[in-house]
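User: quick one, fold this
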Amino acid sequence: MSKEEISRKKRVRGGHRTSVKRLISMADEYPKIPDFVPKFEATVSTLQEKEVILCDINNDLLALVNEDEIEDEIGQADEYSELIRTAIANIKMSIAKLTISTQITQQIQHNHHDTSQVHTTYDNHSNHSNSRSKLTC
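Assistant:
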C-alpha cells in the first residue's frame, strides 16, 4: 500500500475518532433532555460500531506502517478503545440509575396510593364508629 493510501486510512480513522468524541460530548447533554434513554441506547450502539470500525482500521494500519510507528499506533488505538469503553460504561450506569430511580418513584407512588386507601378505610370506619357511639349515648 502506498503512503497516500496509508494517509487516507489515517484520515478516515481521524474522522471516526472525531465522531466518537462528538458522540460522547453529546451524551453528556442527554440527561437534560426528557426521555433521553433512547438517545443513550442509540449512542451506545453507535459507539460499539465505531469501536469495531476503528479496530479494523487500526489493524490494517499496523500491518502497513513502519516499525518505528507501531508502538505509537498501538498506544493511540488503546487510548480510543478505553475512551469508548468508559463512555459506554458511564452511559449504561446512567441508564441503570435512571431505571432504579424510576422504579423507586413508582414504588413510592404505589405505596402512597395504598396508604391513602388505608387512611380512607380508617377514616370511614372511624366516622361510622363515631356515629354509632353518638347514637347509643
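User: anything notable?
Assistant: DSSP finds three helices and no strands in the chain.
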